[in-house]
Structures are given as structure tokens and as C-alpha cells.
Amino acid sequence: MTMTHTELLEIIRNGENSGVEFKRDDIQNHDLAKELVALTNFEGGIVLLGVEDDGSISGITRQKLEEWVMTACRDKIRPGLIPFYEQIRDVEPGKDVAIVRVSRGLDVHTLWHNNKNSYFIRVGTQSREPTPEELGRLFQQRGSFRAELRPVSGATLVDLDMRRLSNYFAQVREQVVPENNDEAAWRVLLFNTEIMVEDGITVSGILLFGRTPNRFLPQAGIDAVAFPGVDKDYAARERAALRGPMTPLLNDVGDIVEAGLVEQAIAFVQRNTAIGGQLEEGGARRENLSAYPREAIREAIVNALIHRDYLLSSTDIELSIYEDRLEITSPGRLPNGITPARMLTGCRATRNQLIKDVMRDYRYLEHSGMGVPRKIVKCMREHNGTEPQLIEDGELFTIRLLR
Fold it and tell me: PANTHER family this protein is in (predicted)?
């Protein structure tokens, strides 16, 4: 972690960025604390003390600077931070620079100043207070709360599909369920399974079992488009707004009688990627062949529904079919330190645990959490010898399958 003289000069030459801040060393303790709070609430970074905004070296002037830094981090930051501190001597003749480094915080940190806590985040080269939505996502990223368990404003018990709920508890979970008219017993059951909270129906409850989820959560669907070529085109072959609960409605023997979002999306892919057909055994009827393996498509769709960030309310999951590829784009960064490379090895982490548990109960995904390597990667290799592409781009994550 120790930095060399050459490395420091290179950082200074490149200027400030999302992880680097320049400061004179005569700043107030709360000014230093503000920058460190913003950095640790982002991805971590360094404050260089003794460097001007324009990168010129002013050097260290404060006596007992290390002690002052540590005291500021203890007194002005909640929870307190212990940064890594080092001093590079003679960056320019007779001028030293101090490096104060913090890593990505496990908690959400605040600046304690003027008898109040203030939140800060790093946005480019600026440290600023977050919007309510940004703050909510920050707490979610740090595991301080689960957005899927927030109550949905205005949603009540009548907004849940009791047929699907009865399916789930009686057929999928194989447990005794209350009578349909026993509202008190249903409330107890739904409260104990986190489909309800004291303030109403949870986000997960509406997404999984809501009669019309989009009435309350406009982002609760899949926008599906099939393009005739390799680029986005207004002249699409088909556009569809896939809406409704994630879970299907089952009959008494477990067959699907009303599709959930997964089945709707699979059907859209199948009718827009058929490449011919073959006679089923016995020659009874013709079965369409797909350009993509059904298991890979299903796994990619389920992953998007389970892992998307439902705090991002302005956009749906996008299912895009092109002549040469299929893309499923999910709003939100990958959760809990997951990267595309770690997904390919089967690393398990989730943003929406209740949604994941319920969809796993319906056998939409494996208990092992190995769906990406075992289903998507394996099926595509066997199908056409291609590797799926997992792409994280800002606040979007895309799984791309090649035709």
C-alpha cells in the first residue's frame, strides 16, 4: 500500500478524479472529514494533503499532522474511521505531501459537524450530499436495509392475487393455508413470510403476487423488442410490454394456466427467434426450433428479475432481440461486490433475497446459485460454441447471448 515518489507524482499529474482529492493541509477538520466520508461511501480513495487544486505542491505546514488527521477521523466521522496515513518527503525540494487513504466502507458513514450528521457521496471530482434516492441505494449497497421489504404506498391485501398466494403456500411450499375469507390468518402468514410488513404490502409481495404490479411499481416489468437487423430500429418486428406478477398461476396438478413474467418473456423470445421446425416423435406435430437454448434464456431472464435494483424506478428490464444476438439488460450495478468474472465462477450474492427464495421455491433457479456457469455458459457452449458476454456499464448490467 505504501506509495513511491514516482507513483505519487503520476497521480498528481493526472489530477483529481472519483478517488483522488487534493487539499492544502491548513483546511478545517470537518473539510477533511467530508472528503473522506464521500470517498469511503463510494469506492474508497485518497486525499493528498499539501497539494493545491491545480496540482502544484504547497507542502505540509501543520505540526503533528498525522495526529490531527486521526483525531479528525475519530471526532468528525460516524462511525469513526482509521485511515492509512503516510508521508512522502521532498516531493519538491523541502516540500512534503501526506497521503490519507480510506477503503470502501462496510457501513454508511456521515460527517458529524454542528451537532448533526450529514451524508456525502463522491460524484466525479465532487463530494456532495446525496439525493434521497441515492442515499437509499447507498444503504442498500451496504446491506443496511433491503429495498424489497419496503412497504408499497397505497397497496393493501386486496391488491394481492389470492389465487397465486394459495398456489404458493399450498402447492409449492406444501403447507396448510387459511380459508380465503380468514383475513386475520392471512395477514399473520404474509407478515411472517415478509410479503407484508406493519405498514402494508412489501415491494417483493407486489412484484411476486400482485394483481397489477405496475399500478404501484412502474418499473415492475420487461420491455421486449425484436429488431430485424443488428441495431436498434424503429421498425421493430415486435414490441411488447410484458406486465404482471413474476409468479405463474397453477392448476391443481401444477400446470401453468396463467403465465408469470418468466413465461411471457420466454414466449416472446421463442416466437421471435424460431429458425425452422422438426417433427416430434411419431410425426404428430411440428415443433419450432429456437436460435437460443431455452434453459439459457430462462436463466438470464430470472437473473434479471431477481437481481435488478428496484430502487431505480425510471426503467424496466429490457429484452432486446437482434439478428445476431439477444440481450437482457437489468437496471442497477451488480450487488455486494459481485463482478461479471465472479458470476462466471458461481459466486453467490443477491440484492433481493425474498424474491430469490420464492422464485427458487418455484424451481426457476438452482439452490446452488450456479445458474450462470451451469445453465447459461454450459448451454451456450453446447448449443453453438459461443461464450455469453456479461457486461456491467454504469447502472446497467447486460447478459448478451450470440446467435
Answer: GLPR-RELATED TRANSCRIPTIONAL REPRESSOR, SCHLAFEN ALBA-2 DOMAIN-CONTAINING PROTEIN
**Gap between the Cα atoms of 161 and 154, Å rounded:** 16
> Residue 313 is which amino acid?
S
Topology alike, domains 5-142 and 217-402: no
- The predicted-structure confidence for 338-375, as pLDDT tens digits, reads as follows 677 666 666 666 778 899 999 999 999 865 567 787 78
Which residues, in sequence order, are CB contacts of 182 under 8 Å at separation 6+? Answer: none
pTM score above 0.90: no
> Which residue bears the cell 424451481?
363
Q: Of all helices (H) and strands (E), which one includes residue 340?
A: helix 340-344
- Domain 5-142 of CATH type 1.10.600.10: no
Q: Look up the CATH architecture of domain 217-402.
A: 2-Layer Sandwich (3.30)
Amino acid letter, 85: Y
Tell me the CA distances in angstroms from 195 to 45, 100, 151, 192, one per residue in order: 39, 45, 9, 8
Give tens-digit pLDDT for 138-159.
887 776 667 788 888 889 999 9
Distance CA 338, CA 330 (A): 14
DSSP 57: B
d(CA 299, CA 272): 18
Q: Which helix (H) or strand (E) segment is 295 a member of?
A: helix 294-307
Is the Cβ–Cβ distance between 223 and 316 less than 8 Å? yes
Q: 100 in helix, strand or coil? A: strand
Helix axes 261-273, 294-307, angle to 10 degrees: 140
